[in-house]
Design goal:
Two copies of one chain form a homodimer. Chain A is α/β, with parallel strands linked by helices. Chain A is built from 13 helices and eleven strands. At the A-B interface, helix 8, helix 9 and helix 10 of A face helix 8, helix 9 and helix 10 of B.
Chain lengths: ~350, ~350
């Protein structure tokens, strides 16, 4: 199994991804194909000692900048590192792609080159969120790939999230919920209400609506929402963490006892940080396309990209996309019904 | 100035509101009219010593339960405590209403009896959210009154939030932002994009889009969103706090040093809790109706309801609704343009 790593994207191109690849090769005995400018990659690799037969380089001459238009780059940069990596996946020369580059460009390229899984209308980006149960994070999707969604998309996100939870999280009968402004049936905007009607008739273990507060309390395994709401939910959670950290730092200055207490609590604070931040998982899977593509933040540290390589291998090894296809075919009547209702 | 307090609603009816009224009368020298079952209220009042000339009772024979349908209760319970309180406001016999009862029923009753401020299409519920600057919370609206919104509603929420910030928060030129999944213009769903175009041409100090993370960082004073997104943002923030508290409690058990640290940090944790939770403000104003109505959670403690009474007085004294009307008339062309575009 070979993972292609786009090394030209991200805030610290070449340097961070190469360090991540060296770690992943060493720690996981993983074959990696580094895609990017050969000269830069080779000279960066020379700084490291690593299992040489596990890491190879594949040259690409172009780079998509972090702020470039995904549509333009897709049309104009046919030899960009992300395009070349995805082409290799499409040709079956690698088994998965990891990128910390321009998220929009990675998504557009993957969708264009690899196409969607049959009967899936839109891809979604999923992420793990922490719950109060250390061993039970939950999957939140979509977190930004689709801003304006139809009910049938939300239904398909439920299927894809379920497949992900069954394979990568190894859950037997994951609980699927719809993010909503109340728990009662009939809550939510029209799109969410219509999605509810599809979800409740599906093969999924659909547990109904969940509120933004309760979802952290280990009541659900998959939380479905559109990318607009998902992005805001994710960012509000991050903002609240930052707020807590910032306020405690300010308040601790008020007394020497509090400062000592802060030191004594370094362990719990470290654990909190680790549990809150899923960099251990490494990246977010782009679900719904024919192929495994893991997307990392542009500012990901090498450790996170290393883990994303392992994450990509898992998705490929566990045949995540076969499970998605199976769930789609088991619910095909609902998918078709949902899409037809919408085109009326 | 007299504040009517609906004592029949809430999780601890009569008891909590009466205690709150006694505190408010004592602490703020505030005249209060308790609306509810006279016998129950009088016997509850007898448990307290309080400035007798400040508190009076107005009998109502019915109660709207916390789970009752707002529409049904509006039609069938014409002598409910909330209906009677709002009627008194409409007749000019009191200056504001505070309720910790069924939020939907309070909203429906207020809208039906008092009507909307001229050219306002929908009322909104606003709440204060904390920022990293202790002295600068921000106003988030709508947090649940309107699930499916049109761009013109969001625009009007901006005007109402601005009027609230200018009066109650005493800000001179508050920064108004639109909650979005990115900062760049053109981000967001179609409704948010259209609302952007109205906001940027208004008299407001519109600073553009804000993400769910950055809004906590003292960059804005008013954050506008629909009630679906606002509810989820608010609940995610609450859920994240609970998560932090729960994890720290779990982790602290791991070592005696951490437990001591936790004790030594009681002060900062207390400050964090106070800053995070705006019960000091007391309740959430229902903006956009002809009259001051403050809504509290059903589970509000007497201290919060006491503060809501003060909050109601402030809104009435500062003529919040006159300021809303003025802002509406200054932006009337945009309001009309927004509403017309939508009916196409």
């Amino acid at each position: 199994m070979v993972i292609a790593l786009d090394v030209m994207g991200g805030d610290v191109p070449v340097h961070s991804p190469v360090e991540a690849a060296v770690k992943a090769a060493t720690d996981f005995n993983q074959e990696i194909l580094l895609v990017g400018d050969r000269d830069q990659v080779v000279s960066e690799l020379a700084q490291h000692s690593y299992p040489q037969k596990l890491i190879e380089v594949f040259h690409s001459s172009e780079t998509v900048g972090m702020d470039e238009s995904p549509a333009l780059s897709l049309r104009q940069k046919k030899d960009s590192s992300i395009r070349v990596a995805v082409n290799l996946l499409q040709e079956g020369k690698v088994d998965a792609v990891v990128s910390a580059g321009n998220t929009g460009a990675s998504m557009a390229t993957a969708k264009f080159v690899l196409k969607l899984i049959s009967d899936i209308e839109r891809p979604a980006i999923a992420t793990l969120m922490p719950s109060t149960n250390r061993n039970n994070p939950f999957v939140l999707l979509d977190i930004g790939a689709n801003i304006d969604c139809k009910p049938s998309y939300l239904f398909q996100f439920g299927l894809m999230g379920d497949a992900y939870a069954r394979t990568v999280l190894n859950l037997e009968n994951p609980r699927v919920a719809l993010l909503n402004n109340g728990e009662e049936e009939g809550k939510g905007n029209q799109i969410v209400q219509d999605a509810f009607k599809l979800l409740e008739r599906s093969t999924l273990n659909f547990v109904g609506n969940i509120e933004g507060k309760a979802m952290f309390q280990d009541q659900v395994d998959i939380v479905v929402c559109d990318g607009f709401v998902g992005n805001i939910a994710l960012k509000v959670a991050e903002g609240t963490f930052d707020f807590v950290r910032s306020v405690l730092k300010q308040e601790v200055q008020a007394s020497w006892m509090a400062r000592l207490g802060y030191l004594a609590m370094r362990g719990p604070f470290k654990s909190l940080k680790d549990r809150a931040d899923y960099s251990e998982v490494g990246g977010a899977p782009l679900l719904g396309i024919n192929g495994v593509v893991i997307i990392c933040h542009g500012n990901s540290k090498p450790h996170t990209i290393r883990n994303a390589i392992r994450h990509a291998r898992q998705c490929a090894e566990l045949n995540l996309n076969d499970v998605i296809s199976r769930e789609v075919s088991e619910n095909l009547n609902l998918i078709q019904e949902g899409s037809e209702n919408l085109s009326e």
